[in-house]
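[Automated response] Your request has been received and processed.

Submitted sequence:
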Amino acid sequence: MSLKEQMTAAMKEAMKAKQSERLGTLRMLISAIRNKEIEKREELDDAAVIEVLSSFVKQRREAADVYRKNDRADMAEGEEREMLIAQEFLPAQLSEEEVRALVDAVVADLEADSMKDMGRVMKVLTEKTRGQADGRLVSDLVRAKLQ
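Generated structure:
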């Protein structure tokens, strides 16, 4: 069963269980996927759906941060709940230690030793961690390693 089919099934379950917040979030996710399909004029595979989900999670995380900075904890909690629902459909997230080990391995493989090599390292790491780690965390770890 594809990710899109899993989300549709989860949406139907949320309808039956009358879980309005979950239903609304799943509808937003499916709508974002359909919009991307319309934009690309083809059906998305699971990898492309993961990209859409990752983008959705990133948007929710950033919005929650902004709400917290502006003392709107209620709004931040709503964004975080939506983020958790979307994360259910993403692959398991790598821990910071696992990401750090990947960074060390890629830097050693590419023999990177300065910030000039950051682009090459990030290109490889982005492919390896797609949907499994926050890009900002990966970037920060690479930057710390190369400086």
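Summary generated for your ticket: The chain has a mean pLDDT of 91. Residues 41 and 124 are 28 Å apart (CA to CA).
If you did not submit this request, please reply to this message.
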